[in-house]
Amino acid sequence: MKRLLDILVALGVAAALFPVILFVALLVRLRLGSPLFFCQQRPGLHGRPFMLYKFRTMSDARDGAGKLLPDEVRLGGFGQALRRLSLDELPQLWNVLIGDMSLVGPRPLLMQYLGRYSAQQARRHEVRPGITGWAQVNGRNAISWAERFDLDVWYVDHQSFWLDLRILAMTARKIFANRDVSARGHVTMPEFMGNEEESP
Question: In the chain, is it the N or the C terminus that has fewer CB atoms within a 10 Å radius of its CB?
C-alpha cells in the first residue's frame, strides 16, 4: 500500500507541477549555471547508498585557493527562496519513482553520519528515506539532532498508511507557513558530529 501511494502521488505531483519544474530548472540555469542538479550519495534503506537529486541552491564560488566558500556565502536569496518553498526537493520525485526513496520517511542524511549514530538512532534506516517525514513536520531543521532522530525512530515504530497521509497533509501546511527551514544561527543544519556533542 505504501509503495502504491508513493508511485501514484509522485506521478500525480510530477504531472501537476511539470510546468513549475521546468520553470525552476530554467531559473536555476540562469541564476546558478550548470549543472542544474545537486547529486550526492546518501544512505537509503538499511544504509545502502543511492544517488539523491535536488535542484542546486548554492553557487560554486571559491576562494583564491580553489576551496568552496562557506554555505552562508554561496546560498544567496534565490537559493534560500527555493529551500523555503521546498522547490529544490522536486527532483526527488524521481528517487521515489525508482524506489530509492518514499514520499514519507526519515530524511536521507550524509554517508559519513552512519558511523556516528547510536544503535537506536541507526534504526531510522529500517525504512526507506523520505522527501518528508515525522521530524520534518515537527520542527524540521529548528530542532536538535537528538530530537530529530527520536522522531525518526518513532515513525519507524508507528508507520502506517494513515500516518503517511497525515504527514503529507501537515507537510503542505508547513511549506505554505515557511517555518523551520534553518537551524538557529545557521543557513541550513550544522553537521552532526556524534552523540557526545549532543550531551549536556
Answer: C
